[in-house]
Design a protein that fits this description.
alpha/beta, 5-stranded parallel β-sheet, 13 helices, globular, binds xanthosine-5'-monophosphate
Amino acid sequence: MQHQKVLILDFGSQYTQLIARRVRELNIYCEIHPFNKIPKDLDSYEAVVLSGSPNSVRGEDVLHPDLNGIRGKKPLLGVCYGAQYLAHFSGGKVAESSTREYGRANLAYIKDGEDFLENIHEGSQVWMSHSDTIKELPDGAELLASTADVENAAYKINGEVTYAIQFHPEVYHTTDGHQLLHNFLIKIAGINQDWTPQSFVEETVDELKAKLGNDKVVLGLSGGVDSSVAAMLLHKAIGKNLYCIFVNNGLLRKNEFEDVLHQYEGMGLNVKGVDASSRFLGALAGKSDPEEKRKTIGRVFIEVFDDEAHQIQDVKWLAQGTIYPDVIESVSATGGPSATIKSHHNVGGLPDFMKLQVVEPLKTLFKDEVRRVGASMNMDSHLLGRHPFPGPGLAIRILGDITEDKVKILQEVDAVFINNLKSWNLYDKVWQAGAMLLPVNSVGVMGDERTYEKCVALRAVESTDGMTADWVNLPYEFLQKTSNEIINKVKGVNRVVYDISSKPPATIEWE
Ligand code: XMP
């Protein structure tokens, strides 16, 4: 990729990924690296940003980056911890703050005539989140902005292109954060804004063509956004040499296998639908432990996928829909780099015995960027806007052991819920929704008959990445109508409850 790029050094802040997303919103490519694993090819970066951190520059847990190849040599921006670090170790002073400095503040002083502060005005809201504060600026520094409580809210170091801010430009509540990053990256560092979904598609397709030549590639489609967008990119690059496999594990939503397969075929993909429902359900029979169910599904998936892949002559590559958050190495609480641990993967582990090389066309993109790339290839907006769905599917929404009958009941319940969300225009306001079949029967009455039937729980959450989530306040009328419809339409269910737990402490799935 020939784009100019920005290096973000991570000191473990919860907001580091947000910095990257804001930079990319300016159509500038950037990468996150741990502060103690600075890339060797520093020349290929136009500017550097130091992130915030939960650690203190005064404490024993201070994190020391090696800035030798950076300071004075490249435009540098320190954010929060980054700003404190630049102050504390260059002749300034950082001390514990006497007032709490969390949340909203407003810029009360702004130095005139600074490119860094162009179009930012007094009164502009900024977001603070720190317990240490910069008491004295470092040698050669000049104050650029203050708030009522934080005098040294922004400064620059003369003689080098180094800027530092105590507040967080990357969070939504800093109203001019976007402008500030624009000023630093474009006005001061002079970086081109040429990284767009279209340019990503063009370059990735060229790269894939060069890398794969006439080789055959196999890819497991899941019906989700990532694998579908990865497939489209590969399809553009190598056409019929991409062999897609879409496995029905018998645990998909109602009619999903047929619908999604049909949609893939309409996109021109060379896709084989494999109905392995009975193989999965057979292997799951009698198993009720959640982890055992997951492992069984993962194992059978690999077996099925491997059988299918072996039928393709001379296949050399396995394509995966891995995205950037799966590969970013983040800084752990102890300051060491730690690979982000993803416990869930739609396409299980890579079957080693297949001996395939791996190609991952989306591994530099965030989820929202994957959607934008898909949209720029004119992919169907329904497909791009689909809620996440777990690889083990309904198996982890049927609590306890799994039978075909239970799957059918849950598919019907889920279909009523999801269709109603769509018809009430609520689907796109919810991050993920689904129904759980509980292992309890309860007493009910239908007509003059006493019933003793299943209870289902509905769950709808809002979230950005599934790591934390909150339940959605769906309208009572919607819940009322949906509950009625489920109980009237789905035989075997006489009670519906709505899950009002946040994550943490509850998880999104019930198993
Ligand atoms: P939890 O239940 O951990 O879910 O709060 C967070 C997100 O991960 C999905 N999930 C899975 N995805 N295999 C997957 O591919 C799994 O075993 C799995 N378990 C949970 C869940 O649907 C939610 O989006």
